[in-house]
Structure formats: structure tokens, C-alpha cells
Write a structure and sequence with these properties.
With 307 residues, this protein is of the alpha+beta class. Helices cover 39% and strands 21% of the residues. The chain has helices spanning 111-120, 137-151, 157-173, 188-200, 208-215, 219-230, 234-252, 257-263, 269-280, 284-290; strands spanning 12-20, 25-29, 32-50, 55-59, 67-70, 78-79, 83-86, 92-96, 100-109, 131-133. The model is unreliable at 297-307 (pLDDT under 50).
């Protein structure tokens, strides 16, 4: 049994830093509304969504967007989500971890429609709990076929309804993934740009927020990616880069230690000397006198192999 054709979703939204790349495409069929979105978002863009009707969402791009989702303010965020089901009345918060373009298809329907479709297929599921699915080739294929039919109708409602049923079946028979944080998005190019930025601003403390902007990521996601990939925080890496630069200047220039301290962001000569001795086991003055034939060690630098 189908719901009446005049069903219209009543989504409440509050979004920021998102814009559509093309006009919304939508289609009504068998008591269901399907709409296809193409979106461009800035770092940190996102929104709040809640609807009196359930819905499913399938991402359409080859790569899953670097976004985080949660249905509770204090709950862990889900990442790496390729498709999801949100029950009626359940709120959803979303946030982009990087600036990006992405697209998705949404199916909105009444709860009675969902019961009827799943019942006819002999599928039993808890319809009161959200379901988040990771990378899933079947759902991605279904979503792209449905999106094409919505954008360029060439067949009757039967095909679109069949794709919708197939999507429901896949979502409610696939074990929901434990969504882990997505792999880091710090490419060699971004790390090179970040190192250049730090070198150009060596005389001051660069904040994590500034580094994140250079990398094109949100501050929290940048800090997570950097620590995951390189085993140290961005602040510790910045401090090590500052000391390594000071080491090179001590050994390779005739600048005074006070000048070197200023040029590399240390508060004064005494501060440089303390940090230098703690790292290399001797003060800068002795380091300069001995003039080691080999350059200062840069072991464990996360960018030494790409610069």
C-alpha cells in the first residue's frame, strides 16, 4: 500500500557556508520524494536538520566526503559515511572537515511507507535508530542510477521505485559499520605549503588555526590528521622546526645568538640556549666552535622526505 501522492517533506534546516552548484532536481513517486543535491562547502561548513518524516541519504561521488555526522550533541561523530538512515524526529548535525564539492540523493517518505516496503520484503529492522553505512558499492550504484533518473527522467516511476526499494533493502540488511575516523587528508603538497608558511613566519608562534587554514582543513580535523600521520602534535613539530632552523643558523652563519633567537621565534638568547642544550647536549656557542662537518640531525621530521 502506497502513501498518498501529495506527501511533502517538512524538513527544518539551519545551514551555513554551503551553497548549491546547480538547481535542485527532485521527483515525486509512490508517496516518496527524491531530491538530488550538488553542494560546495567551506571548511567547517555544516548544518542542523530535523524532519517529522524518515529519510535515507546516499553519497554519489567516487570519494566519500570528509564530513562528520552526529545525532546527539555530546555523542561521537561518525566519519567515512557513504549512506545513512535517519528516523522521523531525530536531529542531525553535519560538519565538513575540508573545503569540498560533493553530491547526494535524499529519499523522504512517511513512516507508514517504510513499514509497508520493508514488510513486503520480509525485512525486520528497528526503525527508531539511525543507521550509518560506510563505503558500499551497491548503495553507491543504486544512488547514482536513481540520481540520473531524477535529473533526466527517461522511465516511469516503476524504475525509480525499484531503486528506492533496493536501497532500503541494502541499508536494512547491511550491518552498520563502526565508522572510524577517515584517513588523514594531509598530502605532501599540503605539508610542503605548511612548512613554507612556518618558515616565512618563524619569528612568531603560529596557531593551529592558522596552520589548518593553510592546509585547507578545520582546526580539529587538521590536528587529528597531523597527529595520526606523524605521531606528534602540530605545535611540537613547529617547535622542532624552529630549533632545527636555529641549529643550521648557528653552524652556517655568523649571526649573533641573540639575532638567531629572534629570527627563529625564541623569546631571547637564554631561551634558545636552554632549548638547544636540552636537545643537543651542549650550548650553541660550543656547537658553533666545533663546526660539525655534517648538518644538524633532522631525524623524525614528518616532511623531510618530501621537501
Amino acid at each position: 500500500m502506497h502513501t498518498k501522492a501529495e506527501f511533502t517533506p517538512k524538513m527544518q534546516t539551519n545551514v551555513h557556508s554551503l551553497r548549491t552548484l546547480e538547481p535542485l532536481s527532485w521527483r515525486r513517486f509512490a508517496g516518496t520524494i527524491a531530491d538530488v543535491w550538488s553542494i560546495r562547502g567551506k571548511v567547517g561548513a555544516g548544518g542542523f536538520y530535523v524532519s517529522p518524516d524518515p529519510r535515507i541519504v546516499i553519497m554519489l561521488d567516487d570519494d566519500i566526503p570528509a564530513h562528520s555526522l552526529t545525532t546527539k550533541k555530546d555523542a561521537d561523530e561518525k566519519r567515512g559515511v557513504g549512506a545513512f538512515y535517519i528516523p522521523a524526529g531525530v536531529p542531525l548535525w553535519s560538519r565538513l572537515e575540508t573545503a569540498q564539492d560533493f553530491s547526494h540523493i535524499d529519499f523522504h517518505f512517511e513512516t507508514s511507507t517504510l513499514h509497508a516496503r520493508l514488510g513486503a520484503a520480509g525485512i525486520n529492522g528497528d526503525l527508531t535508530k539511525p543507521r550509518f553505512i560506510g563505503s558500499n558499492d551497491v548503495l553507491a550504484t543504486i544512488g547514482r542510477m536513481a540520481a540520473k533518473e531524477v535529473r533526466q527522467p527517461s522511465r516511469g516511476d516503476m524504475m525509480l521505485d525499484g531503486l528506492f526499494r533496493a536501497a532500503l533493502g541494502e541499508i536494512f540488511t547491511t550491518a552498520t559499520d563502526v565508522i572510524a575516523p577517515a584517513p588523514g587528508n594531509l598530502t605532501p603538497h599540503k605539508l610542503s605549503a605548511l612548512k613554507r608558511f612556518l618558515q616565512e613566519n618563524m619569528t612568531r608562534q603560529v596557531t593551529v588555526a592558522e596552520m589548518a587554514t593553510v592546509a585547507g582543513l578545520s582546526p580539529s580535523w587538521f590536528a587529528h590528521c597531523f597527529s595520526t600521520q606523524h605521531g606528534e602534535t602540530p605545535q611540537r613539530w613547529q617547535a622542532r622546526l624552529r630549533l632545527e632552523t636555529a641549529c643550521e643558523m648557528v653552524a652556517e652563519t655568523s649571526m649573533s645568538f641573540a639575532e638567531i633567537a629572534h629570527a627563529t621565534g625564541f623569546s631571547d638568547q637564554a631561551h634558545l640556549s636552554r632549548v638547544f642544550r636540552a636537545k643537543y647536549g651542549q650550548p650553541p656557542s660550543r656547537w658553533r666552535r666545533e663546526r660539525f662537518p655534517k648538518p644538524c640531525s633532522k631525524r623524525n621530521s614528518p616532511v623531510q622526505d618530501i621537501i
